[in-house]
Amino acid sequence: MKTIDCRNMACPLPVVTVKRALESAGGETVRVLLDDGPSRENVRRFVVERGYAVEESSLSEGVAFVIGGVSRDEASADGSAGGRKVVLITSDRLGEGPEELGRLLMKNFIITLLDLDVVPDRMLFVNGGIFLTTEGSEVLEALEKLGNRGVEVLSCGVCLDFYHRKDKLRAGAVTNMFTIADSLLGDRPVLKL
Question: Could you tell me which InterPro entries the record lists for this protein (predicted)?
Answer without folding.
Answer: DsrEFH-like, Se_metab_YedF, TusA-like, TusA-like_sf
